[in-house]
Amino acid sequence: MTGCPGNRKDADKAWQRAEAKLSEGRIGDPARGRMAFQRYVEEIWLPHHVVELTTRQSYTYSIYKHLMPEFGPMRMAEILPEHVRAWVARLSAGDVSPKTIRNNKAILSAIFSTALNDQVTFLHRVRV
Does residue 128 carry a pLDDT above 50? Predict the structure, then answer.
């Protein structure tokens, strides 16, 4: 490399940091995780999630009935497995049927699977 010795040193550090992130599975822009759950679901996940019309209607109802009140304003990166467990406990205590809880948990899992693949988050909040 030509130029100042600092340029090569900086370049070496940069590729080493990139390699470390890659080996950890942490590539991409961390700022993406700062987006609110509601924004991610409404602008990214739901419009691009390919399902039958009736399934989309059911998902949309469940998302706004059960997921948005709990997770909507939270940043994607701030949602942790403990929040998911507490949410499930509140649903159970609120006389929500086990089938409805399973369905909502499956929707939440699908959202976080996509977020993980999109590198919006680096932890699957539902499967841990």
Answer: no
